[in-house]
C-alpha cells in the first residue's frame, strides 16, 4: 500500500485531528475558525477511515493467502 507524498499519513492525520478536537473543546476560537476547524476535522476523519479500510483489506488478503484459520473482523475489535 504505497501512497503519494501529497496524501497525509494516517498517524499525521490522527495527530492533527486530536489537535482540532482539543481546540474545539477549549471553545476559544471564533465561530468562523471553529467552522473551519470542524470542516478540516471532517476531511481528516474521512482520510483516516479510508486508511483503516485499506489496511483492513490488506490484512484480510494476507489472512486469506495463509491457511485461512485466523478469523479477522476489525469492526468487532478482535
Structure in words:
With 78 residues, the chain is mostly helical. It has a domain at 10-63. Helix content is 67%, strand content 0%. The chain contains two helices and no strands. The chain has helices at residues 10-26, 31-65. The protein is rod-shaped and about 55 Å long. Residues 1-6 have low confidence and may be disordered.
Write the SSE topology.
Layout: H1 10-26, H2 31-65
Task: Please give the number of β-strands.
Answer: 0
Regions with little confidence, pLDDT below 50 for 5+ residues: 1-6
Strand content: under 5%
**How many strands, which pairing sense, and closed or not: the largest β-sheet?**
none
Briefly summarize what is shown.
This protein has helices at 10-26, 31-65.
Main features:
single chain; 78 residues; mainly alpha
